[in-house]
């Protein structure tokens, strides 16, 4: 990135834009919105509250050309092995190509549909022959967050025959233990969701669930009825004891954090029905098509990504707040934390050299109105300069009078906050001074439904990809999580043998305090 001509130009321009207050860009009734928004069917992207003008945008687009963004997009869509450190493709777009699905993808849709129909029609039965009523997804990271986020968001569109869905992910088993008290083993099925089928968090919880089923019955084949497996590692599923007819697959070319579009989305399909799941895929496919074909200047993921790079690398903003104004998107920020930070939280370029520039900002978020009463203070009067994404829907949850009133409140607050962050406020009392000048995006969608949610998630996936191309990093591996896993295994062995020799004094001190207790 830093060797491009556009980078040099943007670096020279940046100090002037840093100094210019955002509100002055809107002064004298400047109709910035007209020039700095993109509207496609179902989605409006307003970037008028960003410190950009045509000069900046033209240079960002030139930088994208110099970094060969078009070529990279084609490699992504063609399933080339662009995850070079693992020698794999990153072909999540193939999972939602509803017009030309790969045969193996269609085959999994058929298997998913069979399981969905059997569960909806109470044909899948437990060891006593009673219909399964409860489904518990056991998984972590990409095998949890996508299905959790989507099923929470779309609960209001639940299929009338959907079983009760539960999600457990925490290693300490608290969630699972609490659930097991309420559930009946004879009518509960567990979905063990793990791409690798080696993740200790998931397998230890699955073993606890297995023990619970085994304790409840003498039936020797009980386990065959109570576990569905979803993995890219079928041999491991079989070895663990998942019946072949209850195994769903996906492939090493699907990254964990990009996997909710695959059979990992089974719980989504259980909640919405297969049609609803396909609608989610269709929304993502619409965004894929837009991303692949729209000119960069009118391309929402490209512009969101490039403006994020401008903010991070030229205006030196270090945080990214995600602020959805709808409580149904409660888990959206958690989902994006993995998507963005596990993808682009890297400091090594594709050629192995260390980057000399910043990459992924720290991303966090919360449902907007709740966050207003929590961390917005920092956004308005703190010392950190951050960028914010406001996500808003035209239609609210309910159409009755009170519902519409609440939705109007929601809209008013969203617009008020992005405006307050932009204009700020002067005052004689220093406590009441708001510097303003905080940049933001607003993304406006029609309503919270499967199609629109598919579009929204795919937008962020592609934004991440655009930024990875600018930063010349591989967004599809996650080597940074391995060291902690290795050390945890070593410490677990030491805990079991009461051996702390050779460890640092902090770890030893804490272990010895625990052992004394
Ligand atoms: O440890 C990180 C990670 O590998 C994520 O990338 C992944 O989503 C999560 O763990 C769960 O992995 P798996 O689906 O293989 O259990």
UniProtKB/TrEMBL annotation:
GO terms for molecular function: glucose-6-phosphate isomerase activity. Gene3D superfamilies: 1.10.1390.10, Glucose-6-phosphate isomerase like protein, domain 1. Keywords: Cytoplasm, Gluconeogenesis, Glycolysis, Isomerase. Coiled coil: none annotated. The active site is at 342 (proton donor), 373, 485. PROSITE patterns: P_GLUCOSE_ISOMERASE_1, P_GLUCOSE_ISOMERASE_2, P_GLUCOSE_ISOMERASE_3. Pathway: Carbohydrate biosynthesis; gluconeogenesis; Carbohydrate degradation; glycolysis; D-glyceraldehyde 3-phosphate and glycerone phosphate from D-glucose: step 2/4. It is found in: Cytoplasm. Its EC number is 5.3.1.9. Belongs to the GPI family. Catalyzes the reversible isomerization of glucose-6-phosphate to fructose-6-phosphate. HAMAP family: G6P_isomerase (MF_00473). This is Glucose-6-phosphate isomerase. It comes from Thiomicrorhabdus heinhorstiae.
């Amino acid at each position: 990135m830093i060797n491009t001509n556009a980078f040099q130009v943007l670096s020279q321009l940046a100090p002037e834009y840093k100094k210019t207050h955002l509100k002055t860009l809107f002064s004298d009734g400047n109709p910035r919105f007209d020039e700095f928004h993109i509207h496609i069917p179902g989605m409006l992207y307003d970037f008028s509250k960003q410190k950009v003008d045509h000069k900046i945008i033209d240079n960002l687009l030139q930088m994208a050309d110099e970094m060969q963004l078009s070529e990279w997009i084609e490699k992504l869509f063609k399933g080339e092995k662009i995850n070079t450190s693992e020698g794999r493709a990153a072909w999540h777009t193939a999972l939602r190509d509803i017009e030309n699905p790969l045969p193996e993808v269609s085959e999994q849709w058929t298997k998913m549909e069979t399981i969905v129909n059997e569960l909806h029609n109470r044909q899948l039965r437990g060891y006593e022959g009673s219909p399964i009523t409860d489904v518990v997804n056991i998984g972590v990271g990409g095998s949890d967050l996508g299905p959790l986020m989507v099923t929470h968001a779309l609960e209001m569109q639940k299929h009338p025959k959907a079983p009760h869905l539960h999600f457990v992910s925490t290693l300490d088993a608290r969630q699972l233990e609490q659930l097991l008290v309420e559930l009946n083993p004879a009518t509960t099925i567990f979905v063990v969701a793990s791409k690798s089928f080696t993740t200790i968090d998931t397998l230890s919880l699955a073993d606890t669930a297995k023990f619970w089923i085994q304790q409840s019955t003498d039936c020797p084949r009980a386990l065959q009825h109570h576990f569905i497996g979803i993995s890219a590692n079928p041999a491991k599923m079989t070895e663990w004891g998942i019946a072949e007819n209850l195994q769903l697959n996906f492939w090493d070319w699907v990254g964990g954090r990009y996997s909710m579009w695959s059979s990992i989305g089974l719980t989504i399909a259980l909640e919405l029905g297969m049609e609803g799941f396909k609608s989610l895929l269709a929304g993502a496919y619409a965004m894929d098509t837009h991303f692949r074909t729209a000119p960069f200047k009118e391309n929402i993921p490209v512009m969101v990504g490039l403006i994020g790079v401008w903010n991070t690398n030229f205006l030196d903003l270090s945080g990214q707040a995600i602020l959805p104004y709808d409580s149904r998107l409660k888990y959206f920020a958690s989902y994006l934390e993995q998507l963005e930070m596990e993808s682009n939280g890297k400091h090594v370029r594709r050629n192995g050299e260390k980057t000399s520039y910043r990459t992924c900002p720290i991303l966090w978020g919360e449902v907007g109105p709740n966050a207003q009463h929590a961390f917005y203070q920092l956004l308005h009067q703190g010392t950190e300069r951050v960028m914010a994404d406001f996500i808003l829907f035209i239609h609210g949850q309910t159409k009755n009078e009170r519902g519409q009133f609440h939705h109007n409140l929601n809209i008013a607050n969203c617009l008020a906050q992005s405006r307050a962050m932009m204009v700020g406020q002067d005052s004689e009392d220093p406590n009441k001074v708001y510097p303003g000048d905080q940049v933001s995006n607003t993304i406006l969608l029609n309503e919270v439904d499967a199609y629109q949610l598919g579009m929204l998630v795919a937008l962020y996936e592609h934004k991440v990809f655009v930024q990875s191309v600018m930063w010349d990093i591989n967004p599809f591996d996650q080597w940074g999580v391995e060291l902690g896993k290795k050390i945890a295994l070593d410490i677990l062995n030491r805990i079991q043998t009461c051996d702390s020799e050779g460890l640092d004094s902090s770890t030893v001190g804490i272990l010895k305090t625990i052992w004394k207790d």
